[in-house]
User: What shape does this take?
Amino acid sequence: MSDKVSSLIDITERAGCADDAWGDFRGFERITLELKQRYHYSLGRQSRFFIELENRRFFATACASCGRVYAPPRPLCPACLQPTTWRELSGEGSLETWSALHFSPGTNADVAALQTPYVLAYALLDGASTLFPHLLRAEGESLRQGMRLRVAYNEGPVSHPIHLMHFAPA
Amino acid sequence: MPSVPVVAAVGCTEIASERRDCNARDLLTDALLDLLADAGMDGLGAVEHGLASYESDHFNMQMTLGAILHDTIGMTPKPSLRVEGGGATGALALRTAWAHIQSGLCDSVLVYGVEKNGRGVSSQTANQLFALSADVDWETAIGGTYTSFYAAMMRAHMAQYGTREEHFAHVAARNRANAAFNPIAQKPMDISIDDVLRSRPVADPYKLLDCSLLSDGAACLLLASEAWAREHVPTFRTRPPVFFTGTGCGTDTMRLGDRHPHITNFRAKQQAAQAAYAMAGIRDPLREIDVAELYDSYSGVEIQAVEDLGWVGRGEGGKTVAAGAFDLDGILPVNPSGGLLGRGAPVGATGILQAIEVTQQLWGLVDERRQVPGAKRGLADTHAGIASISVVNIFERRD
Assistant: This one.
């Protein structure tokens, strides 16, 4: 699909300059193209995390060898190269760092619906070894490192199952 | 017998916010003709291998662009390879060329990089596309952008070490000022620290003027054994030889949160620097390096980088940068080209442009207002994502 948005320009004006090696090529055309794709995208071995969000439960994975607890979940412990096991967490934790985005990429319908600024927060959930990134909805509250947060659950339908949750002040 | 490669010749386009008159092939054509003029060569007949560097199939709406570029500049039927590693792509391509020559596979490699990141798509689409290079399951889907990941890192750095917005505003102002002395620079600006602080917020603590540019541009660099360069590159004897003496690469987890509790700095960059220093025989980098191009995708990244490259202690970057230590008249001038903030950042070409600036500094051939007098050794630091891949390349003039 293409729509012609500009026509050849400037040919007469700029062609034929004796010292211009590209004189024959000075005009150009610029068109608009669209590429829309639909993916049947597998969440693979991470799937249970997203399925449990529908049940308002938050799961990480734990490595029996080294004891690390991964949130977001990793099916394979990269340190031990052993399969992990699912472990439910309380969904409470503390705020480690964050950024308020004043510019939205509009990645999907749920992101496009966000009012800017919105807050991307990294939380250390109780019992986890890693920081979990998600949106923090704390309207009117001033954020501080270490403040207590909890996972809050959303009703579907959503554009991506990760939007079945967000963070809120505990 | 393989030898440490030399930079035989360089070429590039001007860097622009949009070159409506050129597609990626045209930009590479211009960069190549610039390289041939620099080399004093009338063709690529003797060059043995091509190496294509571009980041995005999406921006170009073209897969296998490497093969098309190779074809465009008449390199068929010679061997070719595309290297891809996000923002580090150009530096990884140079490192790959280094290995091709060091292994004895060939004596000459043309590394060519190009990107049309400018205004071919809207800023929103550009951010969406760049966000596809984050973890799409966990970071992209929640509306995260690279600006916000970098910003969250910088907030942690500020909280832990007392780094201030004024410190990184210094970088934003200085690199754009340096760009005024670089004829290929996209956006030189004469701005104050207050101008940076007052620019509109994008992802706090980063504001518009803390962010680097989206660019169109191309660059190429001919890497060769010294013997090959002497035989085939007429201008080689007219300039002091510049050797590619060290290259290091490090990696880190894709997601920032997986680096807990080490989220203030770039572990991959520390690893890359140590490997490059060991190869180049550098023990005291702050004294032994004369000029450097650092990957200032955001202004604060330069502060993190001077720490991770081992030039200042952890947490001292902000104050040291703000005191002018890395200005053109400082102890180690950084980003004389203007960097990604001022010269611009056509991704696949960026690492090559950094190496070109360092090489031309060592040749003593840049505008005297940004020339570091008597520079003998230079460093180019390039990374992908939030330094999920980091590359440090070192170049040395040996008269």
In short: Residues 1-16 of chain A have pLDDT under 50 and may be disordered. The first strand of chain A starts at residue 2 and ends at 4. Residues 5-37 of chain A form one domain.
